[in-house]
Design brief:
Shape of chain A: globular
CATH topology of the largest domain in chain A: Rossmann fold
Strand content of chain A: 15-25%
Helix content of chain A: 25-40%
Number of helices of chain A: 11
CATH class of the largest domain in chain A: Alpha Beta
Number of strands of chain A: 13
Oligomer: homodimer
CATH superfamily of the largest domain in chain A: Alpha/Beta hydrolase fold, catalytic domain
Distance between the termini of chain A: 29 Å
Radius of gyration of chain A: 20 Å
Strand order of the largest sheet of chain A: 1-2-5-9-6-10-11-12-13
Structural class of chain A: alpha/beta
């Protein structure tokens, strides 16, 4: 089936790198039943791809993203701007597009071309907003798999994901036990910790209590920007590590701040960093989509599939698994990746658990490229 | 000089334990010049005390609090409700009130009887609000010392403080080198890290962007409660440790939640805990006072006193110092207490650095009483 293009109404600007580009999308089976109830009609998944699918269609790698990125993981002819994993995906890179056909999907429930709360409900002609059914990590996994099937791929060479994507990959392994020969779960979790739940609940509350949220019925011109700013700043704080920031920012003052006149204006360089992260995010991400995906991360519990994480993965037919964790990750602490690795091992899947000493915390997969490159390159080759 | 009582207008309820009680206060020297400029006229410091000052007035212990508590550290005849360090202060307890006269001060800039942004400016008859001059950790230290002097105490047997109070104690040692024979700094810092600054900047922003903040001119009936809720929830998250919460809450669901109908209502027990903390705090704490004290913590840098933390404490005439840190503290990480201990040591002060393995993070001094009792008891006896 040929990929198709379809304009999606979006409440927000597309990511800067994809401006003026409508994403490629494929249809999901319709209706598409959801893990926690409800179903979607005529839903679509946006994706990007690199490399060439071979004749036997067995060289495909499916990549799931974290909470906020689009499917634009790397530059392409269609969109030559750098993607969010630019240094990992390409010819001769760790995810080698001269060997593999790599596809990255925008998560079901997100706002970069895939169907989500910001999409128009074909039944009403209005945006779904809070009428959108609850999205689970399991739905993101299954929708990604269906997107691959829509391109004629029934079995992936590998599924790969980091952060939320690292959770999605474990759900994929539980739900589609023979869907991929290799599995790479990076900085994921078999079930969010109370610390992560608490943080995300505060992020959501900052949006829910922003008067501009309007019970989910905000206008495109006036979304709950203040709430989104706070949510993103808090996220940014927990995506790195205190040690990295001490080295990177220390107590460096903010220079040339025009707001200094205001008594509580930012004074330190680290505050300007948070500010730049928040500004960009509020410009591109839909608040309701954020709420849906954030809740999905809290509720995900791999042990729902059989009573334990080990039971969930017991039927996995993967040939090999790579699980990567980062010692400085406060949001998805490394014992959670250790539990994922143990579950694969107990299923008899030959598993490498890479415990990386990167200082960059949860975001290390985006920053500490040498360490991640080495692990992923060795695993895929 | 006899302590006096003076009603203070307060925008908020007093802490539950002190309801209907006007705090005891003493006057500060007037004018009272502030570390970063400006001065206060007729400012007062609220305090509570336990035990008896001896004839030579050399058995006094001065206690500084964290950001949010009042001076009600323990029950007294005047106010028999339990205080925030009830298990540490009393006859035969670690801070033994049968031997020592213990006084706890409400920080200058706070809202529990001491002069702060919520107090009435005698020059205008109006609340100070943002007209209040900037408060520094150094001012809190000096005001506490002046409060002791107002009771006729020129030299403390010991100064003790935790969290913000742990910072204040280091400022005290720098500013009043022979003001105390012993110094106890608990879970303090010689200078906030960029991680702590980032967190506090988000807490402040949540208040500043709450429309009810009204540029600091909120009404007592309608303070920026949403912003205060978010600030306190975020604080609560960082006051404990992920490990403690995993043991305490795990993924326990919230039971009997009447709000479950709302799609993003709390689902987990940990969220109810945050909620209870936030509710209480927004009822008792003044938002402008919070902003002032939060900023003071960011800006504190012991090295301003001579070029380094070591230089700042070089002239300390303390006879002994105890510095306590907690390994699981993410907000004031233990290397910061190690730096304080090193500075006392390099000043020639015999110093014990206690590195506690408590799981309760920054709040451990309130919770892990056995470990703190043992250290403080041994040090004071």
């Amino acid at each position: 089936m040929a990929p198709t293009q379809r304009p999606e109404m979006r409440a927000f600007e597309a990511p800067r790198e994809a401006e003026n580009l409508q994403p490629l999308t494929v249809p999901l089976p319709s209706p598409f039943a959801l893990y926690r109830g409800g179903q979607l009609h005529n839903a679509r998944i946006a994706y990007e791809s690199w490399g060439t699918l071979n004749a036997t269609r067995d060289n495909a790698i499916l990549l799931f993203t974290g909470l906020s990125p689009s499917a634009h993981a790397a530059a392409s002819e269609r969109n030559p701007s750098p993607g969010w994993w630019q240094k990992m995906i390409g010819p001769a890179l760790a995810i080698d597009t001269s060997r593999y056909f790599v596809m990255c999907v925008n998560s079901l429930g997100s706002c970069f071309g895939s169907t989500g709360p910001a999409s128009v409900d074909p039944a009403t002609g209005q945006r779904y907003r809070l009428e959108f059914p609850e999205i689970a990590v399991e739905d993101i996994a299954r929708a990604g798999y269906e997107a691959a099937r829509a391109l004629g791929i029934d079995k992936l060479h590998a599924v790969v994901g980091a952060s939320l994507g690292g959770m999605v990959v474990t759900a994929f392994a539980a739900l589609v036990p023979d869907g991929a020969r290799r599995v790479v779960s990076i900085s994921g979790s078999p079930a969010a910790s109370p610390f992560a739940i608490a943080l995300r609940s505060v992020q959501r509350e900052s949006i829910l209590r922003d008067p501009d949220w309007q019970g989910g019925n905000y206008s495109p011109e006036r979304p709950p920007r203040n709430g989104m700013r706070l949510a993103r700043k808090l996220g940014t704080i927990t995506y790195r590590s205190a040690t990295e920031w001490r080295q990177r920012f220390g107590r460096k003052p903010l220079e040339g701040n025009p707001l200094r006149a205001s008594p509580f204006a930012p004074r330190f360089a680290v505050e300007a960093y948070l500010e730049s992260q928040a500004e960009r995010f509020t410009r591109i991400f839909d608040p309701n989509c954020y709420l849906y995906l954030s809740r999905a991360m809290d509720r995900f519990d791999l042990s729902e599939h059989g009573g334990s994480a080990n039971a969930a993965l017991a039927s996995s037919r993967a040939e090999r698994a790579l699980v990567i964790g980062v010692e400085s990750d406060m949001l998805f602490p490394i014992h959670e990746q250790a539990a994922i690795a143990d579950a694969f091992k107990s299923a008899g899947v030959p598993t490498r658990f890479a415990r990386l000493p990167s200082l960059e915390g949860h975001d290390a997969f985006l920053v500490d490229i040498p360490r991640f490159d080495a692990e992923i390159r060795a695993f895929l080759s």
